[in-house]
């Protein structure tokens, strides 16, 4: 069963859409404002988010931005009457996967939800990485070695994944900072160094794995 986080402040529309989705086999959690939506997402990550833009307390753009700070993979559909090109572009820039304009037919929304969740499931199935003797699970945010398991933060997972996907290549510091800190200051640079030190510590039980600091340029992960 697909879990849908549906965020809509118009009560009558929310009731119709929620009932229709549930009738088609979806499990729906409905929230009426952006603040509650973010809390609900972090409490129990859904399979997909269907999100209005104009809402009280926190608008849909801000909700999407908060979600993408901690999750890059869960699909987001904007379902909104805001149809200006600049709104659509902004939505996709903030990490949306689809944009449905009101008024809409429920059948169209269902097809889009099914397509995005199917694609997400395929991607998630490929999100385990064998790094030396370790297994990195980017969905569970864990790094495992035998029976030992370390719980990683979102940034630790994404940083290690990026380093591994570019194994034997230098990953520039600026590229990492832009991707995960959105700034290039002394403090974010120092934060990156701290995260690299943590990851080195996690991986220290496999002596073949090294993360080399290429001074003033970036980092390179190698496995001998």
From TrEMBL:
Residues 126-223 bind DNA. The modification 4-aspartylphosphate is found at residue 52. InterPro entries: CheY-like_superfamily (IPR011006), OmpR/PhoB-type_DNA-bd (IPR001867), Sig_transdc_resp-reg_receiver (IPR001789), WalR-like (IPR039420), WH-like_DNA-bd_sf (IPR036388). SMART domains: REC, Trans_reg_C. Residues 3-117 form the Response regulatory domain. The keyword DNA-binding applies. Pfam families: Response_reg, Trans_reg_C. Keywords: DNA-binding, Phosphoprotein, Two-component regulatory system. Residues 126-223 form the OmpR/PhoB-type domain. This is Response regulator transcription factor.
